[in-house]
Amino acid sequence: MKLENANILITGGTLGIGHATAKLLIEHGANVAITGRDEKRTHKAARDIGALPITADVANPDDVKRTFKTFLNEYGKLDALINNAGIGTRKLLEELTVEDFQKVYSVNVFGAAMMGARAAEIFKKQKHGNIINIGSTAALKGYEGGSVYASSKAALRSMTQSWQAELRKYNVRVSLINPSEVTTAFGQEDRQERESQPNKLRGEEIAWAIKSALQMDDRGFIPEHSVWATNPF
Hints:
single chain, alpha/beta, Rossmann fold, 7 strands
């Protein structure tokens, strides 16, 4: 896909991976909208990089509908959806509640699915499009305290494979990018970005992987791509 003048929607684009990706794609000529739940943060983040801000929560079906309506009113068509919005919690097995699963799954699984479903409607009609789901290496191997988050990303991984089976015949490419640990605001109560460390991944590395997957000629696609820090120890 050519990035020049491509119309791309990124959920959770105010910080971290989403913001770094939006910035990189805009620098290469794409038209990008970012979503975020906090109106002030979303508008500031968009203003800083020249994106279209959409204040929305992917866990809210009405917000999902409004997101696509706003996007299409602005750009007319959609070329790529990047399902980046995600939350997590870390709890030992005996500490877990049903509410822990409901909260995380509402964003990481249900929200991603509803965004993907709406994008699929558009892409099937126009016979092309791209969906990139931001997963996690936690989906490949669980960890202590990871019952909720790791299983939500495993669900997203399985959904990605199902979407690939459904949408390839419509020339729609669906990819999964699995970051390992990235120094973002993810998991931070104050929603402040963690300081970059030379042995840890940044949002920029994941943005590069996303950009590369999108830029591949439309005749091919990357089903799944994991990104690890070279030497995190």
